[in-house]
Automatic annotation (TrEMBL):
Domain of life: Bacteria
Domain Carboxymuconolactone decarboxylase-like, chain residue ranges per copy: 33-117
Signal peptide bounds: none
Coiled-coil portions: none
InterPro entries, A to Z: 4CMD/NDH-1_regulator, AhpD-like, CMD-like
Cross-referenced Gene3D superfamilies: AhpD-like (1.20.1290.10)
Origin species: Sporomusa silvacetica DSM 10669
Protein name: Carboxymuconolactone decarboxylase-like domain-containing protein
Amino acid sequence: MELNRFEQGVQKLAEVDGTAGENVINALKDIAPDLGRYIVEFAFGDIYCREELNLPEREMVSLSSLLTQGGCENQLEVHINGALNVGITPNKIIEIFMQCIPYIGFPRVLNAVGVARKVFATHKEAVR
């Protein structure tokens, strides 16, 4: 039986974020349930399920994109956690940020490193 976009998205979200993704969806149920559904269906059911990039590659792109936008610390926290969950090491996450310094500058990278420090301290797999 073929899964619908939402079911497929829920499975992929759990693969990336474990229970953290479910917590985000539940947090949106009372205020913006459609937003939660769109995130699951489109981002995880459609985009994350494409075969051209694997999950670590997708998380590296997500980290870089969020970092360059600035002001996305909450989402950066989610995706640092996701990156760790799919096998990206803390050192590699920091190196992704370092690579962006010439293009976006020190302030945004310093903010991202601060978020990473917080996630690494709480993530059970993050050993530096």
